[in-house]
Write a structure and sequence with these properties.
This protein has 359 residues and is α/β, with parallel strands linked by helices. The chain contains 10 helices and 17 strands. Helix 6 crosses helix 7. The chain binds guanosine-5'-triphosphate (GTP) and zinc ion. This is Small ribosomal subunit biogenesis GTPase RsgA.
């Protein structure tokens, strides 16, 4: 999204737990653990190297980075997380269990997991009714959404520039009959307002999609001109100067919270095994009937996938897209060390083969 996207100031409106996205999912955790009594919930609205910013009904402050002592891969508090604060200082004591999470592998550093955003309700997967429309890309975003356990909504923009927008809607819908497909002219208020059902008070949403598909245009309308507009919050940098930094979680006119972080663009297809099994459930089920456990569905005998293609029961192109994503996921999920070892082994194998040929 372009930097001139207008931001409403979360401090402007009265802050309530529910308005911040508090749900029974979180309340239950409080109720079930006596040790948490008396702690105050606040939501992480921004994450920097220097620390977090949290917002709650009676708190709006910077905090040092928080790592939940219970540990694990996802122990760092990230944007959208709920923390429980000590009433005095305030200090973060506990992180509440998330209901959804976008994460990625940081490139080049082996297995380190980077958390992008937590507790997101809806991901708007935006594409246009033109050459940007690409079924493989939609499947890729869908896989990321399913992995994160966030409800996907397809948003098809620029119908006003297309001869037959319905054809695009039909193609998107065919990917998954259970997903809502909205076809909207992003430049009109009526168009953007079609997204309001997912943007109620306390909902958390995020937009993904290629550059130029209309994400900023939609957000501008949803931000609303009448709300107090800022470019972010002022923070002192190390040299004591005021720098303006955008918050990564900010509020739309309807009361929803928008995740706006560059991390969303850099999501890679690592660790999306579950996502792939949901998006391509029919194909993974089918592959369980292949004779070989590790069937690549190429030329193996007894391949159930190939057989189903031959009988005309499944779409061969979809199978190819699935195989490509599965391969990409496996490659991304490998650590750098494993990748190097694999390359080395391959190099050795080629050398030996060449030697054998020469002989
Ligand atoms: N005619 C028409 N133009 C649109 C529509 N949606 C977006 N546009 C135009 O497409 C251009 C790109 O829109 P943006 O909102 O900047 O796209 P973006 O997805 O935010 O792009 P990035 O900021 O690069 O990620 C702008 O000139 C918009 O006015 C639409 O539904 N109809
Ligand atoms: Zn097979």
């Amino acid at each position: 999204m372009s930097a001139d996207t207008k931001r409403s100031d979360p401090q402007a409106a009265a802050v309530t737990l529910r308005g911040l996205g508090w749900k029974s999912h979180f309340q239950q955790q409080l109720n079930e653990d006596e040790a948490l009594t008396g702690l105050r919930p606040a939501r992480v609205t921004s994450v920097r190297r220097s620390g977090l910013h949290v917002l709650g009904p009676d708190v709006d402050t910077a905090l040092p980075p928080f790592v939940d002592p219970e540990g694990g891969d996802g122990a760092n508090a990230t944007i959208g997380d709920w923390l429980l604060l000590d009433s005095e200082l305030p200090t973060a004591r506990h992180m509440l269990e998330r209901f959804s999470l976008f994460k990625r592998r940081s490139p080049g550093t082996g297995r380190a997991v980077q958390l992008i955003a937590a507790n997101v309700d809806t991901v708007f997967i935006v594409t246009s009714c033109n050459q940007d429309f690409n079924v493989a890309r939609l499947e890729r975003y869908l896989t990321l959404a399913r992995q994160a356990e966030v409800t996907p909504v397809f948003v098809l923009t620029k119908p006003d520039l297309a001869d037959d927008p319905e054809a695009y809607v039909e193609q998107a819908q065919a990917l998954d009959r259970s997903i809502v497909v909205e076809c909207v002219n992003a430049k009109t208020e009526a168009g953007a307002n079609r997204l309001l059902p997912w943007c109620g008070a306390g909902q958390t949403v995020v937009f993904v999609g290629s550059s130029g598909v209309g994400k900023s245009t939609l957000v501008k309308t949803l931000t609303g001109e009448e709300s107090i507009v800022t470019q972010g919050i002022r923070e002192d940098d190390a040299k004591g100067r005021h720098t303006t930094s955008a918050r990564e979680l900010y509020q739309l006119a309807s009361g929803a919270w928008l995740v706006d972080t560059p991390g969303m663009r850099e999501l890679s297809l690592a660790d999306v095994k579950d996502g792939l099994e949901i998006v391509f459930a029919d194909l993974s089920d089918l592959s369980e009937h292949c004779r070989f456990n590790d069937c690549a569905h190429e030329a193996e005998p007894g391949c159930a996938v190939k057989a189903a293609i031959a009988r005309g029961e499944i779409d061969a192109q979809r199978v190819e897209r699935w195989k490509k994503l599965v391969q990409e996921e496996a490659h991304n999920a490998m650590s750098l060390v494993e990748k190097r070892a694999k390359d080395k082994a391959l190099g050795k194998m080629i050398k030996t083969t060449l030697k054998g040929k020469r002989r």
